[in-house]
Amino acid sequence: xxxxxxxxxxxxxxxxxxxxxxxxxxxxxxxxxxxxxxxxxxxxxxx
Length: 47
Hints:
Elements lengths: L14 E5 L5 E5 L18
Antiparallel strand pairs: 1-2
């Protein structure tokens, strides 16, 4: 799963885990639930 500092999912967010024919694992946020993200300042880079 890729994310940016503005959109880091909260711990415990529901996800869907998929595998492709090569055996690679893909993780996506569950589209059936409302997504909740951490506050932006928590993951902002320090200056």
